[in-house]
Amino acid sequence: MKSPITEHLERVLELTRPVESGHVADYIDVLAQADDTKMAVALATVDGFVYSAGDDKVEFSMQSISKAFVYAMAIEDVGMACVLEKVGVEPSGDAFNQLSLQRNTNRPMNPMINAGALASHSLVCGTEATEQQREERIIATLSDLAGRRLSVDEAVFHAELKDADRNMGLAYMLKAAGIITGDPRAIVRGYIRQCSVNVNVHDLAIMAATLSNAGINPVTGKRVMPQETVRQVLSVMTTCGMYDAAGDWVSRVGIPAKSGVAGGIIGALPGQMGLAVFSPKLDGRGNSVRGVLMCEKLSSDMGLHMMDIRHVARATVHTRTVTIAGGAHACEQKVPIFGLRGAVRFAGAERLTRTVLRELSPADKDDPGSGRYAGACAVVFSFTETYSLHSVAQRVIQETIRHLFALSRNVVLIDPNHLLTLEEDLRDRPITVVNDDEEASLHIGGTGCHPVSYGEGL
């Protein structure tokens, strides 16, 4: 049975196929010969499943799509501070090959235009690296991102190198401005080779999904880049990835993206999926005409716009109770179990701490239901249904635990997957970490205490 997602991708192709506007990149001999009837689309999920339709095995050169990934490599190799000294992060509003630098700093406006991409390329493996070292690093990393060995299309490389006067001019300008320190000719050659790496939409979707998956290739499971680097790359892709069409793109499609003049576009929706489309005919800004339309259609139909706030983060906290008796307790006592569900970030942790404070504080006559567990001797936090805890969520939860200790409450954590990493001061506190409810109930009230019953919270 064919997946309805694949069927939808096929429908999107057919809806956009009749569009005939645009022209192939005829200023590059090899690209001028591209078959402009070819079209493809692919979608890769962050758990490693890839859907595709159309000419999904047809290879084409990455061109400027490579800029996003090489920018990431530069950050990793010389550090964010060094990269920001050489390349800005502001949208230029100009064409991708514009001869322009920022006033006062002489930096290229951003790494997604040619001047910024040349500067980024010059930083890969450090400023003293050889041309070969940079190429090996770039090819290896692009291959890790795609999950297979990629290679340079030599015909594309030689065709672009033959007409590289403008990029040579940019490189010499950057050299004179002190932005690059190496041989401008070698940097231009290396940059053109990175742009000439061949891919198909299947490769690009996985590469985009690796960004969406915080730097881990969802198919191979290999971490290719740190999460902090991914955040920077996605941020710049959002504001600058579609050149002087970036504003239109963000408002209409709403996915961090990068395009290339061979007709490819990638989109990376953080935490969800990677998207890739291909169609060689370009608009006046250098973006694939049909590719943009396909992305607009997919974003609209599938609710992919990152600013689409149809579902507000809520309902991540589930309260249960365990009734205990024995030990130091003269009578039965209800103890709350606060469970967190899903991938928890600030909003989920805030809801948890608000719930804890409301239910353990003295009852408020103006807030019916508050103070239900004001007399509880202990609090249990359950992470059995928690997928992940963001670092901010971890800090909020641990601050809540500190407040509970200040109120002389016992704290038990049901954390079978060790999601909560306790800070140093809490490691010395009497926090019991267990694997399930049954084990937790044996530690809630101290020696001799045992569970009587379990119940749902109100």
Automatic annotation (TrEMBL):
KW Hydrolase (keyword) present: yes
Catalytic activity: L-glutamine + H2O = L-glutamate + NH4(+)
Gene3D superfamilies: DD-peptidase/beta-lactamase superfamily, STAS domain
Signal sequence region: none
Annotated EC: 3.5.1.2
Entries under SUPFAM superfamilies matching the protein: beta-lactamase/transpeptidase-like
Alphabetical list of InterPro entries matching this protein: Beta-lactam/transpept-like, Glutaminase, STAS_dom_sf
Enzyme class per UniProt: hydrolase
A Pfam family per the record: Glutaminase
An example molecular function term from Gene Ontology annotations: glutaminase activity
Keywords: Hydrolase
Family: Belongs to the glutaminase family.
Record-linked NCBIfam families: Gln_ase (TIGR03814)
PANTHER family linked: GLUTAMINASE (PTHR12544)
Subunit composition and interactions: Homotetramer.
Protein name: glutaminase
